[in-house]
């Protein structure tokens, strides 16, 4: 099974991992979601968010945009020029993890895609896209997560500054 296409109707028989994770999410709630993938085709790091998905609020789209901007500042291996076109997955859209989570928990939910071979605009001819670069990109995620938490806390306290 492609577990990233099982989020609409998981079952213990076909996709117990998704079924059980969804159960936990229902118990705890979800405020921010990141799904980390590798992309076979595009030679760059990018985020696929909820742009183009019906009923996604402007506030969530703005939070996802801000998340990407902060990540791009934190890590030179991240870019925002290339990625999936909104709506590219058609009817499959809400069967996918981040899209399902975002819609059902009304939160920013994004898929970070990393290249399998190398980032073409900053190639490493010796190692290509490596575990070390993946780890640095992962560490860089802390910056936009911290920014998102501060923004959420300011909004909850009513502080517009």
Question: How do you describe this structure in short?
Answer:
This protein is α+β, with helices and mostly antiparallel strands and 161 residues long. The chain is built from 5 helices and 3 strands; from the N terminus they run αββααβαα.
The number of domains is: 1
Strand adjacency order, main sheet = 1-3-2
Q: Please report the total strand number as a whole number.
A: 3
- Radius of gyration from the alpha-carbon trace, in angstroms: 16 Å
Query: DSSP helix count?
Result: 5
Helix residue percentage: 40-55%
Distance between the termini: 47 Å
**Shape type:** globular
- Which spans have pLDDT < 50 for at least 5 consecutive residues? none
Strand residue content: 5-15%
Largest sheet: 3 strands, mixed
Secondary-structure element string? HEEHHEHH
CATH class group = Alpha Beta
User: Quick one: CATH superfamily?
Assistant: Zn peptidases
């Amino acid at each position: 099974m492609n577990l990233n296409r099982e989020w609409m109707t998981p079952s213990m028989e076909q996709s117990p991992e998704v079924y059980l994770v969804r159960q936990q999410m229902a118990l705890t709630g979800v405020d921010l979601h990141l799904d980390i993938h590798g992309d076979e085709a595009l030679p760059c790091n990018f985020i696929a968010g909820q742009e183009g998905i019906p009923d996604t609020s402007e506030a969530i789209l703005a939070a996802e945009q801000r998340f990407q901007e902060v990540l791009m500042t934190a890590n030179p291996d991240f870019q925002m020029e290339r990625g999936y076109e909104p709506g590219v997955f058609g009817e499959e859209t809400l069967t996918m993890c981040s899209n399902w989570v975002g819609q059902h928990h009304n939160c920013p939910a994004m898929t970070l895609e990393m290249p399998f071979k190398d980032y073409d605009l900053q190639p490493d001819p010796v190692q290509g896209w490596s575990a070390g670069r993946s780890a640095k990109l992962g560490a860089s995620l802390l910056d936009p997560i911290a920014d998102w938490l501060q923004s959420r806390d300011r909004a909850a306290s009513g502080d517009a500054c």
